[in-house]
Write a structure and sequence with these properties.
Blueprint lengths: L11 H5 L13 H24 L1
């Protein structure tokens, strides 16, 4: 089975790139995140629609 390119060139780009440190990923607890999304989506949109109706 033919390969895509010669094996002498394998990993050339990956080995040439500098090693980066992994970034720390910090997500909010799902309960807090869901509450904030709910407030943003439901409560704030409800306030805007009331203000327009007045």
């Amino acid at each position: 089975m033919p390969s895509h390119g010669s094996l002498t060139k394998a990993g050339k780009v990956r080995n040439a790139t500098p090693k980066m440190q992994k970034k720390e990923k910090h997500k909010e607890v799902p309960r807090v995140r869901n509450r904030l999304e709910y407030e943003k989506r439901v409560l704030k949109s409800g306030q805007q629609s009331r203000a327009v109706a007045r």
